[in-house]
């Protein structure tokens, strides 16, 4: 089963987390939640996967504060290189796949070994 909502609140997310195995939230700042709310979701719904999109500010920081990154299981940063290629870079993962780079533009894995960023 799949359901989509145009708008919602943190309470809506909590309600739906009890009914679904996976929730995709775009974007976390729009539900007016704090980093502590994200951690509470993870604790209260340990069997639910949360895919959450966070916006970046013009200076490259996470909107709403970067503390949320420390509690996430994985963090994928979307970047555009000098050639205009869109890349998804695994900057944090608890499963030993940091620095994997996937080309969204070319639909291929670019790097699968660890490399300094």
Tell me about this structure.
There is one protein chain. It contains three helices and six strands, in the order αβαβαββββ. It has helices at residues 10-17, 35-44, 67-71; strands at residues 22-26, 49-53, 74-80, 86-93, 101-103, 108-111. A four-stranded antiparallel sheet has the order 3-4-5-6, with no helix packed on it. Helix 2 links the parallel strand 1 (22-26) and strand 2. The radius of gyration is 15 Å and the shape is globular.
Q: Helical percent range?
A: 10-25%
Classify the beta-strand content into a percent band.
25-35%
How would you classify the helix and strand content by structural class?
A: alpha+beta
Low-confidence stretches: none
Main sheet characteristics: 4 strands, antiparallel
List keywords for this structure.
2 domains; 117 residues; alpha+beta; 20% helix; 3 helices; 4-stranded antiparallel β-sheet; two-stranded parallel ribbon
Topology at a glance:
Blueprint: H1 10-17, E1 22-26, H2 35-44, E2 49-53, H3 67-71, E3 74-80, E4 86-93, E5 101-103, E6 108-111
Parallel strand pairs: 1-2
Antiparallel strand pairs: 3-4, 4-5, 5-6
Structure in a nutshell:
The protein has 117 residues and is α+β, with helices and mostly antiparallel strands.
């Amino acid at each position: 089963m799949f359901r989509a909502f145009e708008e919602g609140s943190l309470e809506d997310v909590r309600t739906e987390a009890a009914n679904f195995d996976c929730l995709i939230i775009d974007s976390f700042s729009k539900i007016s939640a704090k980093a502590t709310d994200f951690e509470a979701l993870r604790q209260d719904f340990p069997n639910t996967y949360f895919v959450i999109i966070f916006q970046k500010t013009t200076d490259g920081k996470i909107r709403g504060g970067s503390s949320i990154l420390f509690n996430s299981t994985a963090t994928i940063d979307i970047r555009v290189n000098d050639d205009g290629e869109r890349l998804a870079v695994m900057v944090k993962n608890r499963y030993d796949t940091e620095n994997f780079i996937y080309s969204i533009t070319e639909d291929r894995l670019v790097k699968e070994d660890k490399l300094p960023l």
